Amino acid sequence: MPQRPRRVPRAFALVPRGSSLAGKAYWAMVRRVALTAAAIDAGYIALFWWLGSWPLTVVNAISIAMYLGAHQLIARRHNKAGLLLIWAEVIGHSALGSLLIGWNSGFHYYLLMFIPAIVIANTRGMAAPMVLALLGYYLGLQALCDHLGPLDPLPARAVQIVNWVHICLVFAMSAALSAYYRRTVLLAESRLRKQATLDPLTGLSNRSHFESLTAHALARSQRDGAPMALMLCDVDHFKRVNDQHGHAAGDGVLVGVAQLLASNLRDGDVLARWGGEEFLALLPASTVDAACATAERIRAAVEATPLRPAEGKEPALHITLSFGVTSVAGQEDLQAAIARADRALYASKHGGRNCVSKG
Questions:
Q1: Phi, psi for residue 282 in degrees, rounded to 5
Q2: Nearest to 298, CA basis, from 335, 331, 260
Q3: 8 A C-beta contact, residue 190 and residue 243
Q4: What percent helix, strand, coil does the chain show, rounded to 5?
Q5: pLDDT digits (tens, 9 = 90+) for 109-120
Q6: Is the pTM of this model over 0.90?
Q7: CA 88 to chain centre
Q8: What secondary structure does DSSP assign to 110-160, as a single string?
Q9: Phi, psi of 320, rounded to the nearest 5 degrees
Q10: Is residue 225 left, alpha or beta, with left meaning phi > 0 and alpha meaning psi from -120 to 50?
Q11: Which DSSP symbol is given to 205?
Q12: Would you say the C-alpha torsion 98, 103, 105, 111 has a positive or negative sign?
């Protein structure tokens, strides 16, 4: 049957530890938040100048300087100092705004934005005490505002406008932060899925994922009665490559072989790194003779394609593959078919290598 080329996978590199990635993403987000908050405070300057509250106009000018300072501190990796400056700005700004024009102005809403950040960071198990401390501050600020009343009151209509602005901004910021945390979770989930299902060097399926995928293909074959074949191959004299050129060159050879195998198989074929220098492919809707023809085409392509494993730094290596091919019966256990393909591969190895044997 005609063979449709399969997309060549890119081997994905092992990612750094999740905490490191999360940390970098977190501090990048904090820097963006600082710049966004500075821009919001610039808008507040215009708002409070229009409403006639000169104290809050000055407070917002100071806030801009604090946010820009925090941004610079974090950019220079003074993360704790930058974060403390942001905390000081929000706590101080919410207190001054609430005391100057009243609790109903809604400045206190910004304090609530700290709760998810505290819980998610959970620094050394201090989330609960910090949330309780924030709650105490929040209730204390409300009590103080109720006791003193507005120190620099604005007309009720102006206070309502400020409250509406705060509600809209806090909703928008909450949605943005939620979207960020959701994206972080999805990225972490994607990395975990790759680590659980893919070989980190070649990007092909690992053993467990191969067995999971082939279970579905076998069930389909049993229903449809379509032929199915297994193709097991091994890099000839791979130990010699490692001994003479180093393990980095050996890894490069495995990646190159994986790409050549994938480019000569179909989208519906299931390809895996089976272990070491062995690769295993399940070919649904393929007779054993068609699978042998595919194996022969791949064998010739590998023999004719020198591999340069270290981005041109090492000389090109000429390698060959040995193959064992067998059919998979409709009700047959996969392990029995793999064992038969392994015996065929053994025959290729002892028959001079660089050949295809049918089992």
A1: -105, 125
A2: 260
A3: no
A4: 65, 10, 25
A5: 999 988 887 887
A6: no
A7: 33
A8: HHHTHHHHHHHH-GGG-HHHHHHHHHHHHHHHHHHHHHH--SS---HHHHH
A9: -135, 165
A10: left
A11: B
A12: positive
